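Contributing new records

If you add data, match the layout below exactly. Sequence lines come first and carry their own label; structure lines follow with theirs. Keep one chain per record. Anything else will be rejected by the validation script.
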Amino acid sequence: MFHSRYLPCPDCGASVDRAGDSQHECSPERLADYQLFGLRDEVAELETRVRDYLRTSAGRFDAWLAARQVRGEA
């Protein structure tokens, strides 16, 4: 079986040369992107739940109150 010389970094997903002598250092941007990619289902669920809440009377009131506070009316 063919074995790749590169393996994904378990922290950021970058391809790392396992035969290389240099140590891999995850970039903060790539690390954040990789972690967010792993949470994509939870993020989608959160968006759905927020949308559902904003359709309720309590959600509509909270949205109205937030808009009023942003405009400085409260």
